[in-house]
């Protein structure tokens, strides 16, 4: 499939989607988001892919939703737009998605990175929800995911006062997994993706579901879900293979079933 605003490729078992609107600092309009999600959903059902990486370029992961496209929008136009639904589509992707972030990850761009499962950041990455500066507020998860990631006090500053987090602050507050030099951020994200993609696929899928359930449920329901998913894995060939490989001191050969 050919796209206008994104580039896609597969490296080993990692599917990579690069947002490619550099002149607008990868500002996200509905077409960019629809293409991005179509590509991720295609990788999600591709057996050759075990993990995905979403990235931008060195200067910008994405500087937010496209302000020029929204400036004249009415309430009804926003209400009827499929734009923000695209962030919800990301939640339904079953394979792990890693954001490889360099430069600006602002507004909808920060919300996109936070909707991924992990974030690998370059030293130049900056995270922020500056919507308050243009008379609005985050609309694609910023108030919810930022608060869950960094806590209420800091989230209030980020959302109410447009404070940016540097890469090192983002690491300190638990928003990102690791920070690496600019020339390595994509390579590092792909390397992490390869490691995950080589693991037992059904266990990876259910483990991702269980971790993400933390944000949706009570501890008791989360523990019950975790237990059911854990037991379910005993119906897979890969559980027998993994445990047999351990006992016989050999590397496992996963079948994904
Ligand atoms: N939408 C549309 N165009 C954007 C954009 C955005 N979010 N961010 C940057 N651009 C465009 C600029 O308009 C400029 O285009 P022109 O050359 O045609 O003028 C180009 O990208 C380069 O940007 P700057 O000249 O501004 O670059 P800079 O280095 O001086 O500043 C910046 C960089 C601090 C990121 C600045 O561009 C900026 O503040 N951008 C807007 C950030 C923002 O407010 N994001 C939130 C958007 S609202 C949102 O995301 C809602 C939601 O929750 C879904």
Number of helices: 12
Mean pLDDT: 97
Structural class: alpha/beta
Distance between the termini: 28 Å
Low-confidence stretches: none
State the total count of DSSP E strands.
10
How big is the Rg? 19 Å
Walkthrough of the structure:
With 257 residues, the protein is of the alpha/beta class. Helices cover 45% and strands 16% of the residues. The chain is built from twelve helices and ten strands. It has helices spanning 30-44, 67-70, 75-80, 85-91, 108-115, 142-150, 152-161, 167-172, 185-197, 201-213, 219-232, 237-247, and strands spanning 6-11, 14-19, 51-55, 60-62, 97-101, 104-106, 118-122, 126-128, 165-166, 178-180. A six-stranded mixed sheet has the order 1-2-3-5-7-10, sandwiched between helices. Strands 4-6-8-9 form a four-stranded mixed sheet. A hairpin with a 2-residue loop joins strand 1 (6-11) and strand 2. The protein starts with 5 loop residues before the first strand and ends in a 10-residue tail after the last helix. The structure holds acetoacetyl-coenzyme A. Residues 24-25, 27, 63-68, 104, 106-108, 111, 130-131, 133-134, 138-140, 142 line the site of acetoacetyl-coenzyme A (CAA).
